[in-house]
Amino acid sequence: MSSDEQDRRKTLTVKKTARDAHAAERGSKRTRSGARARSAAQMELAREKAQRRTAEPAAPPVTQPRPRPRPQPEPAAEEYAEQPAVRRRQPRAAREAETFEAFAPCPQGLEAALTAEMQALGFADARAGRAGCHFSADWAGMQRANLYSRLATRILLQVAHAEISHEDDILDLARSVPWERWFGAEQTLRVDTSAIKSPVQSLHYCNLRAKDGICDRLRELEGERPSIDTVRPDARVHLFLTGHTATLYLDTSGESLFKRGWRLDKGEAPLRENLAAGMLALAGWDPAAPLLDPFCGSGTILIEAAWIALGVPAGISRPFGFERLRGHDARRWHDLKDDARARILPSLDAPLVGYDLDPMAIEYARNNAERAWLTADTIRFEVGDARQVPAPAEHGWIVTNPPYGERLPADDDDLWRTWSTHLKREFAGWQVHAISSDRDLPQRLRLKPLRRTPLYNGALDCRLFGFELVAASYRERPDPAL
User: Fold this and answer.
1) 393 and 361 both lie in a single domain
2) Are 162 and 233 contained in the same domain?
3) Span 377-434, pLDDT tens digits
4) How far apart are CA 197 and CA 175, in angstroms?
5) What would the pLDDT profile of 253-295 be if each residue is shown by its tens digit?
6) How far is CA 198 from CA 104, 212, 315, 328, 437, in A?
7) Do 222 and 285 belong to one domain?
């Protein structure tokens, strides 16, 4: 190779390439790749920011916002279109429960006691009426009244009230009530009518007018009339007439509330359960105190007392009419009963004792107590003579339904005299409360009553006599009757 060729080759080795010449023309530096390139780019970006800060005027300091979560990549348009729009449900404003005027009938003489019971159950506006109690309640309150009331016979919700001038006005009144809310043509119906000082000529005709009004409305709306069932209907309606007014009630109880569901063996001349509970209320019996019934019969008074002391609701073991009506919320009703069962006490501290001369009556009482889920440890029933039974404690209550009328033995005068002597000797310090249709019972017992409360035992006009056997006033002196 000549010297000229060698010089030309050396010159070509130091000459810039076309790529280098293009970069020089743009005034940019040689590009890098990889980690060194990223590091150089970050340094260059930092220098540019510093230069901008020095060139711009200083700004007042600002509070740095909270760091936001890293945004997620947006879905494709197709995916976004398929997702339904999510709406936030606004809380619904609470609706005020519908309130009804209600009436709870009871045996005559228990009106004040029933009013006090209803007020204790939370019905603050309860007020005594004729043979019952008026109060207001919503549907849940109506269920609670049915479950817990011991003195009421029924719980009736008022659905219509108007003045009438003729029996046919009852038809129009009955047609105006929205009965379809509670029952329809597929259910059975019974209508009962009662009146006080009403000028109507025939209660039977008034009952037919009310029944026709109800059935005509349901036939127009549902195409069929409900069937009539007077024994076990699905729905009961009561028409009450007084003066020139008519009131229609929806019966929510079904069978009378005094039917607790545990009494099958009744014995002779039994008390109704709500009357027995009313006697305990009027006597002022303390559920923590001993109780004796020396004429216990089938055990109604003592079983009612046991349920009161244990806190067992009166209607816990029986069905109700509202359970067969439209719209019944079975779950809420079961929750109410479960809450009531959870509050029942397991046992009693004070003794409850019953005696009767009739062994069959004692057998009935034990059977009834067993159906009421009461054990022999809760109530002790024994065959015994009231004139000889011992006192189970130093102090307590005697609440009883002694024999009167046809139940009295031939030696009734001897019965009362001997029983009175036994009470004075063995039960000083006790209170005695006895119901009787015999107005002369205090004279027969030679005891002065502190109270005599009028009560009706069915159709019998009775009195609940209350006596207090003062301690040490009889034990130290002989009875003048002996």
Assistant:
1) yes
2) yes
3) 999 999 999 999 999 999 999 999 998 766 666 557 789 999 999 999 999 999 999 9
4) 25
5) 999 999 999 998 776 768 999 999 999 999 999 999 999 999 9
6) 21, 21, 34, 35, 30
7) no
Domain containing residue 295: CATH number: 3.40.50.150
pLDDT of residue 40: 62
Average pLDDT of span 213-236: 95
- Say if residue 215 is in the same domain as residue 284: no
Region class of 309: left (phi > 0), else alpha (psi between -120 and 50), else beta? alpha
Query: Is the CA virtual torsion 138, 325, 228, 315 positive or negative?
Result: negative
Quick one: 292 and 440 in the same domain?
A: yes
Name the domain count of the chain.
2
CA 153 – CA 256 distance, rounded (Å) = 5
Task: Answer yes or no: are the C-beta atoms of 166 and 205 closer than 8 Å.
Answer: no
Please indicate, yes or no, if residue 278 is contained in any of the structural domains.
yes
Residue 481 in domain: no
Considering the domain architecture, whether residues 282 and 246 belong to the same structural domain is answered as no
Q: How confident is the model at residue 8 (pLDDT cuts 50, 70, 90)?
A: very low
My answer on whether 306 and 202 are in the same domain is no
Structural domain boundaries, residue 420: 273-315+343-469
State the CB neighbour count (10 A cutoff) for residue 428.
18
Find the CATH number of the domain harbouring 140: 3.30.2130.30
Distance CA 226, CA 218 (A): 8
Query: Could you give the percent of the chain with pLDDT greater than 70?
Result: 76
